[in-house]
Amino acid sequence: MAAGLDLLCHKLQAALDNRREEGRLIDPSSAATLAGMTDFGSNDSLSLSSSGVLSEAFLQELEKHPDFTIGSTSSRILGGTKPYLEDIERDLAQFHGAESAMFFGSGYDANIAIWSTIPQPGDYVVYDEYVHASIHDGMRRGRATAVAFKHNDCVSLQDCLKDIQEHNPAISLGTQVVFISLESFYSVDGDMVPVREIVNAVHDALPCGNYVLAIDEAHSNGIVGPNGSGFICHYGLEHEFAIRLQTCGKALGSTGAVLLTNETIKSALLNYARGIIFSTAPSFLTVAAVRAGYNLLVSGEGEKRRCRLQQNLQHFYQILTTSSWWADAKQGGIFSLPAEKTWRLDPFLSPVVALVMQPGKARQLAQILHRAKYWVNPVNFPLVAKDKNRIRIIVHADNTKNEIETIVCLIMEWAREQMRSVDENAACTKL
């Protein structure tokens, strides 16, 4: 037994050492370290959690239910579907304009359940190449054929759909289903889906109507739409999307996720999704925190925070892209900003800002910002492609203008130093 464990640990340590040598080791900062930093890294984009307003709303929710029990005590298919769970599912379905809702412990769990269970043999899942890892993991466990199209590219999407129909008579005849999997704001580049264009493209490409549109609103729930009800509600496309996922661990500041769908799909998940059948149902405390967050969304406090977040994002992009060194740094390949061409045109902005840079540079810049007490996250391969390393910055409602201006200044100072190094190296090469 001991020899087997020693051998296993030796192999694992060798893999970890290799990742460390390549600069890709994931080594989370301690809570004590993060506590002393200005937050440009967490998903708490409305600052509900960090400000304490969510804690206060949560305690108020507990006071309304003095006889609550901590645990759900069972799986949902047995005795775990308690009244508080039924109540929040009913209320959130109404809030988001859906027929039915189903609460999950996390967005990851929800995507695994959806994509491993709902698409049937002979169906296709056509997905944006930048969808979340949880969707990929769910599709791998599923029984449908998965095909990617180029990110936010309607022509690529239509080409995929045309090719599928040419090689699959059941699709062209309308007897099998094509699922279209999207996100509202993409966590990779921080850009938004051209949702109306994609809906029209799918409608034109599949005249039999044998498609199901699905969208993950992880980064838009709470931020856009009436009372923060989301991206699809903003565009009035609730009836176009049969599957919507609203996560609660980002703008809402807590945890969990809500699937918006119809009763048939919900019943199918209860019967066939192993993660639901063999897991304990969400507890009262989890659901109470989510309800507290939704109570804040519909309040004046929620509206102020949504407005302030968008103002902060506009300010961040404005001072970054008008910096005197921005054009030179971009042309010199120091970094690029995927949302640069669209941020002035979009009706609202994602809290995610991605600065893509050369291999090895993301971690270097992150370390400089960390030493200055600004928390950002470097994102390296294999989380992104090898040539797409980046700094991922999350702008928050409670970030001040001074904090935003300071972090942009630090970024551009680093870029200036990189440009000087490039110029010096070029001069030495000529000599």
UniProtKB/TrEMBL annotation:
Record-stated family: Belongs to the class-II pyridoxal-phosphate-dependent aminotransferase family. BioF subfamily.
Cofactor annotation: pyridoxal 5'-phosphate
Name this protein carries in UniProt: Pyridoxal phosphate-dependent transferase
GO terms, biological process: biotin biosynthetic process
Keyword hit for Transferase: yes
Record's keyword terms, sorted: Pyridoxal phosphate, Transferase
The species this protein was found in: Aspergillus coremiiformis
Pfam families: Aminotran_1_2 (PF00155)
Coiled-coil stretches: none
